[in-house]
Amino acid sequence: MSIPSAVKSTPIEGRQQLIDYLAAGEKPREAWRIGTEHEKFGFRTDDLRPPTYEGERGIRALLEGIAARYGWEIAREGEFPVALVRDKANITLEPAGQLELSGAPLETIHQTCCEVNKHLDEVRSIADPMGVGFLGMGFQPKWRRDEMPWMPKGRYKIMREYMPKVGNLGLDMMTRTCTVQVNLDFSSEADMVKKFRTSLALQPIATALFADSPFTDGRPNGYQSYRSHVWEDTDPDRTGMLDFVFEDGFGYERYVDYALGVPMYFSYQDGRYIDLAGQDFKRFMAGELAAAPGVKATMKDWADHLTTAFPEVRLKQYLEMRGADGGPWNRLCALPALWVGLLYDDEALDAAWDLVKDFSMAERRALRNGVPKKALKLPFRHGTVRDLARETLKIAAHGLQRRAQLNRNGADERIYLEPLLEIVEAGQTPAERKLELFHGAWGGSVDPVFKEFAY
After folding, report:
1. What SS3 state is found at 287?
2. What pLDDT sits at residue 260?
3. What is the pTM of this model?
4. DSSP letter for each residue of 27-95
5. d(Cα 182, Cα 38) in Å, to the nearest integer?
């Protein structure tokens, strides 16, 4: 799901180009795909510390090992390997070396789950002999922010210097969080709007179901999804529930206006990142930035800029679902199953929209703000978020059933919702399960999480 190289160097002549860029994401239903991304924490199996970039057991050696054995092409920044590319998938590095798979655009959740499992097998085969393991959770459970390494990527250096100016937890977001996301298509502006509104209103339900970040610095932090809380104090200019999405007249044009109002981070010019943190993209379009004299923004700059807004649902040439904590492999398959079931079947989309269309702005905000601590137990109207989650999963299951995509055993995609159905039926989130272990079998230590919940 990348911008064609011919478009990259196109100068931006006006706002309509930016609108047209988003509209160019429209695809007929038969071309809709599922792009799943997930991040995970690396740790050294002997001392549980996150691996540094360099060294025999470092992230660089891991990337080079995966590339050599499994036919990935290495992408470099300067002399440093920072990503791997194979077919339409990428392996990239988050700021503290969290390893991210950005999966290929696939047709079914069965294919997605195969891709996830193959990726984890490949990583494990290289990491195990190095004494490195990987953990899926929403927030680093043990190590302090100042104990996390930094990867040699230019954009992260710029963000690292800017983040403390606009929020208290931005550096934690960069170095100590992991998520699982799914990217989904739309057929028209009206289809995009309906999917955006429905998924944005339901994003707190996903946050509650996937809540798996109850520890900070080795102790309970009072949250079930601390990762979700971190976004509340990262940068108010580029995060949140985007109330304007629910206003009459919302569409590509209104999202462009929003994105133009998001302060810049950088521009990538001639193989290096130019620090434009806090600058106005509209002035960059006009060639008026002192830090980039005479340089005018191109469509590549616009595509990059769209990746620097971090709302709960993000629009590029597809919609990104951004509300879930990272987790174990079966929840990496469950997240795309949830959203595909809700958004890729017309009847399910209608039912999901009916569920949320009369939520007030105050209610949507209360869900967003309350779920990080209370998750499924958060009161809502005459019930709780657990009740909403149960109804949401029912709609998703019907959507997946109607899609009727069968695996070789004749099972449809509903099988991937099972971990979420178990969470709702038990009324216990992954975070609550870990807290129970922490206060019981683990004897007040988070260390066992690295063994019991590693991939």
Report:
1. coil
2. 98
3. 0.97
4. --GGG--EEEEEEEEEEETTT-PPP-SSSTTSHHHHHHHHHHHHTPEEEEETTEEEEEEETTEEEEE-T
5. 9
